[in-house]
Design brief:
This protein has one domain (about 5-185): 3-Layer(aba) Sandwich (Rossmann fold), CATH 3.40.50. The termini are far apart. It has about 190 residues and is of the alpha/beta class. The strands form two sheets. Strands 1, 2, 3, 4, 5 and 6 form a six-stranded parallel β-sheet that branches. It has a two-stranded antiparallel sheet with strand order 7-8. About 40% of the residues lie in helices and about 20% in strands. One of its GO terms (cellular component) is cytosol. Belongs to the SsuE family. Isf subfamily. Pfam families: FMN_red. One of its GO terms (molecular function) is oxidoreductase activity.
Length: about 190
């Protein structure tokens, strides 16, 4: 496919981030099938804690982040598992976004853990995306025991690397899918 723009958002701020390495591999696979790709590294964005009383345009780089996601055809969200969920930098980034950035958009998910499978990270991200009426790929990537799975920026486990590459190809393949009608979660997502 051509003319598909895939944007990945890295929810890890660590210098040697396994999440970033995983997203880079997924984007490489998307690029290999003809997509234009960008990695949004949240370390490079000034994103103050979300405050509903502050306009997005007055909140550091929030408006720019939202613009890039709004213009993407597909998005990959990646996060390390923190306390059974996803990271606060990614939560802040998502709080500055809404239906304009995610509704009817194809989203792929990556969860990375230092320990066992980051299932709840992926579940929580899936719930947020459904609340925004995004179309979340059934195929997702969990990277458990990340320090054993990735060494010096390279995947040690070929099967895991294949799953990551498949995610990159699938976001391109399904970027133009006609999504189902909005979810119940989206109908109830009115803010407080």
């Amino acid at each position: 496919m051509t003319d598909v723009h895939v944007v990945a958002v890295c929810g890890s701020l660590r210098e040697e981030s396994f999440t970033r390495t995983t997203l880079e591999r997924a984007l490489e696979a998307a690029d290999d099938v003809g997509a234009e790709t960008d990695l949004l590294d949240l370390r490079e964005f000034d994103l103050p804690l979300f405050d509903g009383d502050v306009d997005r345009e007055a909140a550091g780089d929030a408006a720019e982040l939202a613009r890039v996601l709004r213009e993407a055809d597909a998005i990959i969200l990646g996060s390390p598992m923190y306390h059974g969920s996803y990271s606060s930098p990614l939560k802040t980034a998502l709080d500055y976004c809404g239906f304009e950035e995610f509704e009817d958009k194809t989203v792929g998910l990556v969860g990375v853990a230092g320990g066992s499978f980051p299932v709840t990270t992926l579940e929580h991200l899936r719930s947020v995306c459904r609340a925004l009426n995004a179309w979340v790929l059934p195929h997702q990537v969990a990277v458990p025991q990340a320090s054993n799975a990735i060494e010096d920026g390279t995947f040690v486990d070929g099967k895991l690397e294949d799953r990551v590459a498949t995610l990159g190809r699938r976001v391109v393949q399904y970027a133009a899918i006609e999504p189902d009608p909005g979810s119940f979660e989206g109908d109830q997502n009115v803010g407080a």
